[in-house]
Design brief:
By secondary structure, the chain is mainly β. It is built from two helices and twelve strands; from the N terminus they run H-E-E-E-E-H-E-E-E-E-E-E-E-E. The chain has a single domain, classed as Beta Barrel (Porin), CATH 2.40.160.40. The protein has helices at residues 12-27, 111-114; strands at residues 56-67, 73-86, 89-96, 99-109, 117-127, 138-148, 153-166, 169-185, 188-200, 202-215, 219-230, 236-247.
Length: 253
């Protein structure tokens, strides 16, 4: 999904209603053994190369304020549900403004063997709501890679390509992001990112950064801010989000 190219207002109330069941379940998560590290696909434009563990559902949501240009401002929400169905596979459902998206994530390469993690994320963007009437289904894929650097730093990158419907027909849009992150103290981490989208004339380029704070073993809150550098990227944007993780009902032990 092409983030921060908003054209519809999302409902914050809907995000809260959808997240409440996960919050209730997360509070009752059994703790006979330590859960795996919580790795999320937010904030930022890029995706993580990690796959949600089998039998786990992870809800990631956020709210962004975009100053698109001098005259236009937009508030948009994102919601991503990730469910682990196999050791190297998760299923994904996302919503962002007038678009919905279904897909999956497959872990292709492990850092323990190759020194870098690589995952493939195929997806299909679906028109949703009144803003999506008459639009076609747009397929795409992402390749996410990450690796550790010395002194507690991490480097990650995501390549995103989609066959997008426009007024002039179908066009392949491409986007690439590169992010550098570092754990500051405890479960507080920070990142900086450069992102560029290529779908027409020139680059829709921006820079952004933010912080994440772990909440217990199964939660995270985050904040981000960025500025457009060139093309159709928003003049500036800020956002906040939260993540909750819980076991799927009926999970076998």
């Amino acid at each position: 999904m092409w983030r921060r190219r908003p054209n519809q207002r999302a409902s914050l109330a809907a995000l809260c209603v959808l997240a409440l069941p996960a919050l209730s379940a997360a509070q009752s998560l059994p703790a006979p053994q330590a859960p795996p590290e919580l790795v999320t696909d937010r904030p930022g434009f890029g995706e993580s190369s990690a796959v949600v563990a089998r039998g786990i559902i992870q809800i990631e949501s956020g709210l962004d304020l975009d100053q698109i240009d001098r005259e236009h401002r937009d508030v948009s929400g994102q919601l991503l549900a990730r469910a682990g169905v196999a050791p190297r596979l998760e299923l994904r459902v996302a919503a962002d403004g007038s678009d919905a998206e279904i897909g999956g994530k497959v872990k292709l390469v492990d850092a323990q063997r190759a020194g870098v993690d690589v995952a493939l994320i195929p997806y299909l963007s679906l028109p949703a709501g009144s803003g999506g009437a008459g639009r076609a289904h747009d397929p795409g894929f992402k390749i996410a890679a990450s690796g550790d650097l010395p002194h507690g730093f991490g480097l990650s990158s995501t390549f995103n390509a989609a066959d997008v419907t426009t007024d002039g027909g179908r066009v392949w849009q491409r986007e690439i992001s590169v992010s550098l992150d570092h754990e500051l103290r405890g479960r507080v981490a920070a990142y900086g990112e450069v992102d560029g989208g290529f779908g027409g004339a020139g680059c829709d380029c921006s820079v952004d950064g933010g912080v994440t704070v772990g909440v217990g073993a199964n939660g995270q809150v985050d904040a981000e801010a960025g500025r457009g550098l060139h093309g159709a990227a928003s003049d500036w944007f800020v956002g906040v989000g939260f993540v909750l993780r819980a076991p799927l009902r009926g999970r076998r032990r």
